[in-house]
Amino acid sequence: MRAKPRTRAVVTVVTALSAVALATTGAVAAVSSAGSAIDADGETGLAAAQLVWSDEFDGAAGSAPDPANWNHETGGGGWGNNELQVYTNSRANSALDGNGNLVITARQEGGGYTSARMTTKDKVEPRYGRVEARIQIPRGQGIWPAFWMLGAQFPDTPWPNSGEIDIMENVGYEPHIVHGTLHGPGYSGGGGVGGAYQHPQGWSFADTFHTFAIDWSPDRISWSVDGNTYMTRTPADVPGTWVYNQPFFMILNVAVGGNWPGYPDGTTQFPQQMRVDYVRVYDTADGGGGGGTGTVTASNGMCLDVAWADTANGTPIQLAHCNGNAAQSWTFAADGSVRALGKCLDVAGGGTAPGTRVQLWDCNGTGAQQWARDGGALRNPQSNLCLQPVGRVQNDGTHTEIAGCDGSAVQSWTTP
User: Which residue stretches belong to region Disordered (predicted)?
Assistant: First the structure.
């Protein structure tokens, strides 16, 4: 069990809003810690964006979240913040409700508390795009719901160097405020760089569903609530290294107690439930979403190619002389997939053994289709193995496979 890497104080940025401002201008001004206003468009719109992954949580009441998308982290021990809950994989703490929602339930059981913490590590690891969820948060003193992300290299790269993007956090003593924060090397815990959004009417966010999102592109992240952008951060805003131009995995959880929210008291009622209508990842229209489209070139100048330009499932991926055709045009999508000819670069059978072949397959959001750009390598996080030509031979027509990552030239690719 790993600790939750956040020991925090309340962030210092609070957004000042009014119902009049929303009604008349459709815009929100966020006040930064330096006191300057960040103008934001009230409607960020997804008309030109492409949905590349989602979980709509459709399923029978009482059924488990889709294991192709979600892992359960379990255990207690405070999670680095002196929290009280024990996370479980029980349906009593995480289940579909039959009405299109995931429900994470924090319960008081005996002398303690149980809840759920779910991640998409090694399954869905976006790099750029819009990441959003429609959530009705729980309420009460000591209740701490969150929708957030950690760098995909965690825990091999320890926190905070791995990076953390908090899309939405709420502490129960501030029912009308939600927070967004960055944690990285030199600015973590109480020193995280963030801001907060206040409900325009001052009502509790637990009263109904709200949409919490980031719009994420190279060297830029913007936070929004219900389409109202309230904060934008760039490398100039952080007092350390910007570590957000890499894949991240998503996390949903409800904590009970901790250094920041404090602890339940006589006013806190249990059980408390966080309802999640959906989680979605979009490639955004500004071109930042997936990190580019173009050829993927081996160290000897040959191109990654769909054999015979065949779109059938199972078509081998090979090296070939570069020719500029569509079979050599690859898009790095925001859901972590790499796409050509309308399909995805796929590890055959979801295999995790060295030597497993790489092929073209219908995009399905599984870990077999996740690829992280680590230096010059293309690594499949599910197997933690890297793409290379079979037998390490860089010839025209050589098929590809996954193998132990070794930093060699045959595992080095130039990507768009």
Answer: 58-77
pTM over 0.85: no
Tell me the pLDDT tens digit for each residue of 328-372: 999 888 778 899 999 999 999 999 999 999 999 999 888 899 898
Domain extent for 309: 293-414
Q: Among the options 56, 164, 174, 401, which is catalytic?
A: 164
Is 174 part of the annotated catalytic residue set? Answer: no
- pLDDT per position as a tens digit, 260-290: 999 999 999 999 999 999 999 988 744 344 5
Question: Known catalytic residue: 83?
Answer: no
Rounded to 5°, the CA angle 204-207-209 comes to 110
Domain edge (last residue) among 230, 248, 283: 283
Domain-terminating residue out of 283, 317, 344: 283
CATH number of the domain that residue 140 is part of: 2.60.120.200
How far is the C-alpha of 162 from the C-alpha of 184, rounded, in Å? Answer: 7
Residue 368 lies in a domain: yes
